[in-house]
């Protein structure tokens, strides 16, 4: 009886949501997928004719504040727009029914649907392209203070060659306080620190999950398909071996129960995917390092030699895009050209001056001859005697020696030294009388 009531309530909720979608001018086409906390529908906008993915939340919401506090909505608003993050177009909330729907970008399929039942392996270039975009999405969310906590093939969406990370319902802030929820990510993609600690893990768990996805895209099989937590740890040890005691001791410090594992060497990944290159294997091993402190981060993964060709192609595409922008915008092109010419002229002038003046003496740039001054006729001052000056030095023609002035040392004080006090200038001072101006003449 209770299950019957729940089904009736769910059907009424769904019908009410369909009515809301019709009011918002969306037509429901069909169901794409179903999860624990939401259903995903394919809807079409009656305004522009485009199709979208409608994520119908099963949770009941009391108010608009309750909706805005939803982690997935906060995360998508912070992370959008980004080419490798699912785009959120609209949030629909009906207060009467407490229903919420997220209108998102519609993709073709997820990674699980891509590889399910496939026998022929994907080309390594396609695998490299997908993993490069996945690492870019993780780098973007980690830089923005968010980690996903549920990276798996079902939550990685593709549309032709474009990959986008979706379903941020389990995401958490990197700066939030530990411990976190223990059983958060899907078991097969759960990192060792999530299995062996009481919720003490970090954003590095996303890298471990991405490494597991990497293997699954290449082999079409899960890397660590454990049936329970203990079996999950056992399968991890079968592949990469038992970690050193110092790493296990690090996990034991944040675990109430103690654990010990038999020592295993590990089979490695190579026997299961022999077609992959050595570069891909080194990146995969770096992503599934047992110790999260030794595990590669998303930014470092993007600089790995495995992605070298994609980085060069991306750089060339950016250069071409800039050139096209210059062609489309003549003002920007001309200003850039002027800046380049001016810098080149400055460089040439610097070398020219260095050759002409190697000692570094900087004189006037151009010698300019001053014009001769024409002195007008001025009345001689015959009524005033010309002052006579007595020279400090003797004439060279005389036999007397030239009097040499003694140097005066300055010690940084305003007081005069004894020699300054004794020194008296032989030069007499004369004061000319004031001139009277008469009718413009002297």
From TrEMBL:
It is an enzyme of class 2 (transferase). Its cofactor is Mg(2+). ATP binds at residue 55. The keyword DNA-binding does not apply. It catalyses: L-threonyl-[protein] + ATP = O-phospho-L-threonyl-[protein] + ADP + H(+); L-seryl-[protein] + ATP = O-phospho-L-seryl-[protein] + ADP + H(+). Residues 26-307 form the Protein kinase domain. SUPFAM superfamilies: Protein kinase-like (PK-like) (SSF56112). It holds the Pfam family Pkinase. GO terms for molecular function: ATP binding; cyclin-dependent protein serine/threonine kinase activity; metal ion binding. Belongs to the protein kinase superfamily. CMGC Ser/Thr protein kinase family. CDC2/CDKX subfamily. Able to phosphorylate several exogenous substrates and to undergo autophosphorylation. Negatively regulates cilium length in a cAMP and mTORC1 signaling-dependent manner. PANTHER family: MITOGEN-ACTIVATED PROTEIN KINASE. This is MAPK/MAK/MRK overlapping kinase. It comes from Pantherophis guttatus (Corn snake). The lineage of its organism: Eukaryota, Metazoa, Chordata, Craniata, Vertebrata. The gene is MOK.
